[in-house]
């Protein structure tokens, strides 16, 4: 690659950044802990939504020690609504690792940072370049898009060989004197200027270097090999009430929402009616005394969309006089007012919100 052209692209990006960057709290710091938290939050979340979560999270857990010493349930409540809860569990786990293996000091070395749970190549590059000025190029969705257009890269970004080509390209373009600012500049440029759909190329400072613009094929980049197949899942939840109390159960399997609380659940392989549910062996074990339960026949239904799954959820309210033994041993009986103390999935909280608004109107 042409070194002069690369240098010119890097300095144009840095100039553009200095004039156009958004003021965000994690840009005002070189504390690797705060940068780490912000990067993990922003992995799957837009800046506007992530900002409040970031402020609340670092307000409660201002450093590695406070996070490592916290109870996981509490960490999850600060993540509630953000989704991808494994991020919060990994943060908590990694904070404990930093305390146990690095004497509580955030590691400086790239290989040590990347060894932390939940920290991939991108996040490690962001942390060590922003905090310590180490020359590691970042490669996130925004950077892939900018590079693929600037150099009209035909290789798909979601293949092993594509990733290799892009990471080499990103590293060659990196301004080694100012890696932190350069990395922030190219990410911000992708987020604000070289946006996914209809970028305003007429005002782009890189328009004379952009091969995709020259060829009139911006819409074709970045190229992707294929979409991940979406899986449908069918959740039948039971809101088991005794007076003003309900039952919550912790999800402990290696699956979505691990360690969050939810209502007792039967998952089925397809959409089933109540008549079939009550014949289900798991339901019979949950409620052996069918006569002593009162089921509201019409469930509250939601279609809940996650990145690779669509969950078709039905919520049945079941009133009982006493909690059946199996549920009593597996679940926690709580008063409805206590719900905010538990980290629950967005899906289950939507159900309770709907119920609450029903009562108000
Ligand atoms: S000219 Fe358009 S496509 Fe090319 S880098 Fe600029 S905004 Fe992106």
Q: Can you walk through the features of this model?
A:
By secondary structure, this protein is α+β, with helices and mostly antiparallel strands. Helices cover 45% and strands 13% of the residues. Strands 1, 4, 5, 6 and 7 form a five-stranded mixed sheet that branches. Strands 3-2-8 form a three-stranded antiparallel sheet. The protein binds iron/sulfur cluster. Iron/sulfur cluster (SF4) binds at residues 146, 149-150, 193-194, 199, 201, 204, 206-207, 210, 212-213, 218. Residues 146, 149-150, 193-194, 199, 201, 204, 206-207, 210, 212-213, 218 line the site of iron/sulfur cluster.
Can you tell me the CATH class of the largest domain? Mainly Alpha
CATH topology of the largest domain: Endonuclease III, domain 1
> What is the string of SSEs from the N terminus onward?
HHHHHHHHHHHHEEEEHHEEEHEH
Number of strands: 8
Give the rounded overall mean pLDDT: 93
CATH superfamily of the largest domain: Hypothetical protein, domain 2
Strand percentage: 5-15%
Helix content range of the residues, please?
40-55%
State the CATH architecture of the largest domain: Orthogonal Bundle
Bound molecules: iron/sulfur cluster
User: Helical element count?
Assistant: 16
Cα distance spanning the termini: 66 Å
Report the major sheet.
Answer: 5 strands, mixed
In angstroms, what is the radius of gyration?
Answer: 25 Å
